[in-house]
Amino acid sequence: MKTKKMKLYDTLNEYLEYEKWWVFTILMSVSGFYGAFTYSIRGGIFCNAQTANFVLFAMALGRAQWRHALYFLIPMSAYFLGALLSEALPRSIKKLGLIRWDTLLIFIEMLVVIFLACLPESAPHQISQVFINFICSMQYNTFRQAQSIPMATTFCTNHVRQTGIAFYKALRYKDIDFLGRMLCHMGMLAAFVFGGIISVFLCDRYQGKALFAALIPLTIVLIDLLYADLKKEKGDLYKVPHGH
Predict the structure, then answer these.
(1) Which CATH code of 2.60.40, 1.20.1250, 1.10.10, 3.30.70 fits the domain covering 23-232?
(2) Which of 25, 35, 40, 48 is the most exposed place for a label (fewest CB within 10 A)?
């Protein structure tokens, strides 16, 4: 028993704090919040991922609705820019030797949330769309694997796919590890739905101010990652996370 406990402890130590499953789960719930927020009260646009926007873009082109098609270029371009910057900035942040990029990203995300929550309801919806697309793109490109399991923190498609794959393999190979993977992905889906439910409930009552609620889970993650960077994992600031 002691040997197994030590092995489990050593395995967990292989991962940085921001690669822990619970961090991904919290971020997934926040993304569900964003998705319901932008679709319900900020222009009916999906900002967590871009597949739906490309479909709507293609439909607008097919109907020769040129101005409407251009409208979808706004979230798509913001998502592109977020991916670009999240790939370029980590190297510069790492050279400072203070905190990791993923920690700084959560702080930036919180600033964006505060800014958007303070906007008047009369502000153009495109402002919220651009900023949420931007931070979702950076988050998706930064948080890639939860304890070596490929994960997405901003959309559900891959989690549904991985749930089906893991379920089949668990049945075929009678391997409990696949069952564990299936439960991990199902947990992500549940977290996303939960975030969306909370978002709709709050948006119906508080409109844009509902976004302040997203600061609660983000603060929890930020405090944990700061502690890891400044104390627990201070010597691992230059360690490359899994999946990067």
Answers:
(1) 1.20.1250
(2) 40
